[in-house]
Design goal:
The complex is a heterodimer of chains A (345) and B (284). Chain A has an 8-stranded mixed β-sheet with strand order 3-2-6-7-8-9-1-10, with helices on both faces. A 4-stranded antiparallel β-sheet of chain A has the order 5-4-12-11, with no helix packed on it. Chain A is globular. Chain A has 345 residues and is an alpha+beta fold. Chain A has 2 domains: 204 residues, no CATH class; 128 residues, no CATH class. In chain A, 33% of the residues lie in helices and 21% in strands. Chain B folds into 3 domains: 99 residues, Beta Barrel (Elongation Factor Tu (Ef-tu), domain 3); 132 residues, Rossmann fold; 39 residues, Dihydroorotate dehydrogenase B (pyrk subunit), domain 3 (Ribbon), CATH 2.10.240. In chain B, helix 6 runs parallel beside helix 7. The chains are: A alpha+beta (345), B alpha/beta (284). At the A-B interface, strand 4, helix 3, strand 11, strand 12 and helix 9 of A face strand 4 of B.
């Protein structure tokens, strides 16, 4: 059952969602549009191509406390921080980014130990996906077609949202999504014409072309590992890299983190925060040995992690072709071009 | 659901300074909570994350053996201030009676099932003897000794003062059911034992590769020169085991730091056979 709301009534929906719990939605800032926890319904914007940062922080914040402690002579006082499990909503996630959540699930939930922090927030958060504007061309950096995603694919979202001329259409894709839609009194029922518009938009989304290449998960995984020792190639493709790590920070599927204690005046917290394999001390051992002291070795690690190791470990490439790392790179390194190039070797 | 990031509180009941340079100490820990103790089941070769609030966590191999109930021991080197060492320095500053945190046991272990019924040659160099000590104590425990064939140990350090576990070593040398070869690069006036590098001693001792596995831990340079000796003796790559070192944080395969290829050393390792290592990219 399709639901809809007139665009000029959108803030009613935002208010209703905020009443339920934390709402994350796109907000215009100085550097571009990014997801934020909404305080004022007027802040939400739907006029954006994609966010600068990925929405991963909703489930995997840049910094997250595990334990808060007080240092007292003798025995320290320490309390685990309760898991965040309020029913949250993230609204406005582009189809390729929705897929990134599934890729991250394989790592945090699918193998070995289950990560309780990721799980608690994933379990309690409803994802409202949002179709790209299918009347406009894709950004030149994007390459999500490579992975078979369209500009308006609803798969993976709990609710999928499409913007038409004057309405927003919502389709419940999962039980959780349908339940949420049913509970929102501000929404109207869609009619047959809306159903048709929705389906047509999904289809039209498949014709929006991003850069694309035939990249088979298993084939590229083998290929990259076979050229692991081709230092000339890796040095050539990473020559401009300044190891700033921004590619990993904006990436929706980079999950590496550091754990550290931060103390101020005898009180503090043990926390995890984003780290990056592009940083020189990422693998620096206490002995002084560093397996990846050079930039090309770290860049090779980044590409191989996404296109080989993730395939070998979890069965899929950990890249969704969102184009963020390319748009944000200060020296215009293009992972898509590099992977295509590697495939030809 | 169990939260794998939250440490168990542990009491530091005994601190032993192991070496004459004072930078390696063994910490004996007991569990504050009985429930934690009951759950803590480990095998030789595994490690734990030791932590001190306000300083952080460090992954350290377990030096005690599961055949020693009631406590867990970790031998810790205080590392340099230029490349970290905050946690190990804080540990070294502790006094008996302090409380610290422990997460674990983590990682795989020396493959006990695989070692069973075989002759085991244990080769260690310097400080990298801690989980080998765990393995030896496990194998020579009266309940376990029959499960293994001949046990040969080659252990070396730069100087006599840098040898770990001296009392235990002396007791092992007296045993009839294992052969010990302790060596130092250079002896001192009181040293009556062997002098020579570990690879040379291995060559002299020449353990048979028949139905045998060797377990090697030590600095990279020692491993580099010891491996050819064992190849010459006929040991296959499947029967040469080692424990890998990589920088770690979470210890449970989540933080993405310690990968070699698609393996996480903290979860899929730290123990690998040479055959397994050769299938991975040389990124360690």
């Amino acid at each position: 059952m399709l639901k809809k709301i007139a665009i000029d009534q959108f803030s009613e929906l935002v208010k209703a969602l905020m009443d339920r719990g934390p709402l994350y939605a796109p907000v215009k800032g100085k550097e571009g549009v990014d997801f934020q926890m909404i305080q004022d319904p007027a802040d939400v914007t739907l006029d954006f191509y994609n966010t600068v940062l990925s929405p991963k922080f909703v489930f995997f914040p840049q910094s997250e406390d595990y334990i808060r402690y007080r240092i007292i002579q003798g025995s320290p006082e320490a309390q685990p921080v309760p898991l965040e499990s309020r029913p949250a909503v993230i609204l406005g996630v582009r189809p390729c980014d929705v897929r990134s959540f599934e890729i991250m699930d394989r790592h945090f939930l699918g193998a070995g130990v289950i990560d309780p922090y990721w799980k608690a927030k994933r379990d309690s958060t409803t994802v409202i996906g949002f179709a790209f504007d299918v009347t406009q061309p894709a950004d030149p950096a994007d390459f999500y077609n490579t992975f078979g995603y369209g500009a308006a694919d609803p798969e993976g979202s709990d609710i999928f949202m499409i913007r038409t001329g004057k309405d927003l259409l919502f389709k419940g894709m999962t039980d959780r999504g349908k339940k949420l839609l049913d509970s929102l009194g501000c929404l109207q029922k869609g009619d047959d014409r809306d159903e048709k518009t929705f389906e047509e938009t999904v289809e039209k989304g498949k014709t929006v072309r991003t850069r694309s290449a035939e990249i088979d998960d298993r084939v590229i995984a083998k290929k990259l590992v076979s050229i692991f020792d081709n230092g000339e190639f890796w040095q050539k493709v990473s020559m401009a890299c300044i190891a700033c790590g921004v590619c990993t920070y904006v990436c929706p599927t980079c999950y590496c983190f550091d754990i550290s204690d931060e103390t101020l005046f005898r009180e503090g917290s043990r926390k995890r925060f984003w780290d990056a394999c592009m940083f020189t001390d990422f693998t620096l051992e206490a002995s002084g040995h560093n397996p990846r002291p050079r930039i090309f070795q770290r860049y090779r690690q980044k590409v191989c992690h996404k296109y080989t190791y993730h395939v070998d470990k979890y069965g899929c490439i950990s890249c969704v072709g969102c184009g963020r790392c390319i748009r944000s790179c200060p020296v215009n390194i293009d992972i898509f071009g590099i992977v295509v190039e590697a495939g030809k070797l | 659901m169990e939260n794998p990031y939250i440490p168990m509180p542990m009491n530091v009941v005994k601190i032993t300074t192991e070496v004459d340079t004072n930078d390696i100490k063994t910490f004996r820990l007991t569990f504050v909570n009985k429930a934690d103790e009951d759950k803590f089941k480990y095998l030789p070769g595994q490690f734990g994350e030791l932590s001190i609030y306000g300083k952080g966590e460090s992954p350290i191999g377990i030096a005690s053996s599961p055949t020693e109930p009631g406590y867990v021991e970790f031998t810790v080197q205080r590392t340099g201030i230029l490349v970290g060492g905050i946690v190990t320095t804080a540990l070294h500053d502790l006094e008996e009676g302090a409380q610290i945190g422990l997460r674990g046991p983590l990682g795989n272990s020396w493959p006990i099932d695989f070692l069973e019924g075989k002759n085991v040659v244990v080769v260690g160099g310097g400080f990298a003897f801690t989980t080998l000590r765990s393995l030896i104590n496990y194998m020579i425990h009266p309940e376990n000794r029959k499960r293994f064939g001949d046990i040969t140990v080659v252990y070396g350090a730069r100087t006599p003062g840098l040898l770990l576990y001296k009392d235990e070593m002396a007791a092992w040398q007296k045993r009839k059911d294992m052969v010990m070869h302790v060596t130092v690069d250079k002896g001192d006036a009181n040293w009556k034992g062997r002098e020579g590098f570990v690879p040379t001693v291995c060559k002299e001792v020449a353990p048979s590769s028949k139905n045998a596995v060797t377990v090697i831990c030590g600095p990279p340079i020692m491993i580099k020169f010891t491996l050819p000796v064992f190849f010459d003796l006929g040991f296959s790559k499947e029967n040469i085991l080692t424990s890998l070192e990589m920088r770690m944080k979470c210890g449970i395969g989540k933080c993405g730091r310690c990968n070699v290829g698609y393996k996480y050393v903290c979860k899929d390792g730290p123990v690998f056979s040479l055959a397994q290592l050769e299938e991975l990219p040389r990124d360690y």
